Description:
By secondary structure, this protein is mainly β. The chain has helices at 6-30, 36-42, 47-53, 56-65; strands spanning 71-74, 82-85, 105-111, 114-119, 126-130, 135-138, 151-156, 167-174, 182-188, 193-201, 213-215, 218-222, 227-232, 237-242, 251-255, 258-265, 268-274, 291-298, 314-318, 322-326, 330-335, 341-346, 359-361.
Amino acid sequence: MESGKIPNKFLGVRNNKIYMDLKLIIREHALQFLPAKSLFKFRGVCRDWKLIISTPFFAHNQSLSFRSLSGLFLQTSGTPPTFVSLDPNSAGIPDPALKFLPAPTNILASSNGLLCCQALTGDRAYYICNPVTSQFKKLPKPSFDHGRDPAVVLIFNPSLLNFVAEFTLVCAFRSADFDDGTEFEIYSSKTDAWTVSGEINFAAKKLVPKSGVTVNDCAYWQTYNGGILAFDLVKNRSQVIHGCHYGGAGCLGEMNGKLCNGHVNGHTMIVSVISNIYSNTMQMSSHARLWDDKVRIQLSNEIFDGSGNDVLLSVLYVESDFALVLGKRNVYRFDLKTKEVKFLVEAPQFDRSGNGKGIPYVNSLVAL
């Protein structure tokens, strides 16, 4: 009988060993997959966790591991930005107005935790910053005047072997020397210098600020006449492709490695994916389609304030799994797989015209 109690003692020891290993697993292999706001909270768990989370090595690993959308920056011209979090308990920033920057700014673009902002006064300098850590870098003055509403794309892809945040900023701007021409100037953090591309596009006309995205080394911007300007950074070539000519304010994004467009047509939210970027150069009799509709979701009267009346709806963000849509008073989350629509947050004061674009943000600890 006594011998039967011995295994229980060993079992207790084993359970304790498992418990200790679980704590180690969480600390070493789970924390890095959490957003920055949660990690700041977890620094208070114990001294060990605080030391781990505060190291540059951990910040680097977190920037590699956590890539999920945390929320959107919304900003009306001339006013401080606001931040709409997808989960306020886990993801957020201490100062959504970005008061740590030397001057009031306009947020232009983002990429994996970094923001590109432009000063509203003075030399209208560009700043790259991390709003979580309040770190920022002022970029040197570009060679050309990019105007008051530059169309920029920020490209930052964290690298496992590179602890320095290397990024690229691509700006498409109206040419001062060529009528109806759009030129491109590119900043590289590797050289800390701007380079003017020899490419000039005469078909793009006026670009929509804050509409830029990158997909597979190619930058895209919407134009006010319904087209999309594409600039291939590898080939240094540009072209204008036909957009989705639907009513409502559309939004560019990436779906399963392809350029997509989220837009509202009547009472339907549609996500279209580009299928053949070269179809607009084919002969007139060609049946090749440029866009394929992948998702259609019917909008309820709730999004139209229950009245069913026409309201300018804006697609603020779209990706493979979900889209965010600004209704009359609220922001809604559309699950593109289940087609479920959920209320997210009450909409702040926001520009609902074509200039009103949400800037996506990832809650990252990336260091500058």
